[in-house]
Amino acid sequence: MRPGNVIEVHSASMRYRVHRSRRRSLREALFRSLLGRDEIVDVWALRDVSFEIERGESLGIIGDNGAGKSTLCLLLSGIMAPTGGRVEVEGRVSALLALGVGFQVDLTGRDNVLLNGIYLGHTREEIEAKLDEIVAFAELEDFIDMPVRTYSSGMRARLAFSIAASVQPEILILDELMGVGDIRFQQKSIAKMRELIAASKALVVVSHSMHTIRELCTRTIWLDKGTLVAEGPTAHVVERYEHR
C-alpha cells in the first residue's frame, strides 16, 4: 500500500450466481438440479473498479439503484471478499450499512451499545468508558435502559450512528444513513463527521442526497451498473451525474 493511503481498491469485481429458473418447491429444485435443468447465470455487481483513499480524506460514492454502491461498501468493510481483484484496508473500520443491523431488540439500549462496541473490535472496558458519551450524543438518556424493540426507527438510527462514530474508527463507512433523524440531529452528525476528518480519519459516504455528498466529501466516485464512470473532485463528479 502506498504511504498515506488507508484504502486501495485494485480492479475489484464482484459476481453473484443467480438461479434463473423459477422454483416452486424444494423437491422441484432438487429434481431440476439432478436433471441439469437448473439454469445459473452470473450477475456482476462490480466490474474492474479501482481507486484509492488517503488518510484524512472523505470519499463520496454515488450512482443509481443497482449501481453496486452497497456491494462496494461490503468489500471495503471486509464483510465480503471480491470475486476478482483485491481490496486493501489499513486501520480499524466502523461500518453502518443498514439501520440497526446487529441490534438485539429484546435487550436494552445499554446492552446493545456494549455488544455493538465489541463487534467493532473494542473491549468491554473501552466501551463502558465511552457509554455516557454515546448515549448523550444519541439523546437517549431517558430510554437507554428500555428494550430496543420499544425504540422508534429514528431512535435506533441515532443510537447506531452514535456507536459507530464514538468508538474512534480510523475508517468510517456510512451507507445511506446521514438522512436519519431530524434536521438538528443531521447537522450534529455532519459536524461529528468533520471532526473525524480533521483528526486524520477516513470517511466513506454512500448517499442519493447530492447535498450530503457536497457537504461532506472532497472527492467522489460515480458507479453505474457496477463500473466506475467518473472519479474526481465532488463538485465536478456530482455535476456530471446530475446533468447526464
List keywords for this structure.
alpha/beta; 3-stranded antiparallel sheet; 6-stranded mixed sheet; 36% helix; 9 strands; 244 residues; 8 helices; single chain
Description:
By secondary structure, the protein is α/β, with parallel strands linked by helices. The chain has a single domain (5-242), classed as Rossmann fold (3-Layer(aba) Sandwich), CATH 3.40.50. It has helices at 26-34, 69-76, 109-119, 124-138, 153-166, 183-198, 210-216, 234-242; strands at residues 5-19, 40-54, 58-62, 84-89, 93-96, 171-175, 202-206, 219-224, 227-233. The strands form 2 sheets. Strands 5-6-7-3-8-9 form a 6-stranded mixed beta sheet, sandwiched between helices. Strands 2-1-4 form a 3-stranded antiparallel beta sheet. β8 (219-224) and β9 form a beta hairpin. α3 (109-119) crosses α4, α3 packs across α5 (153-166) and α4 crosses α5 (153-166).
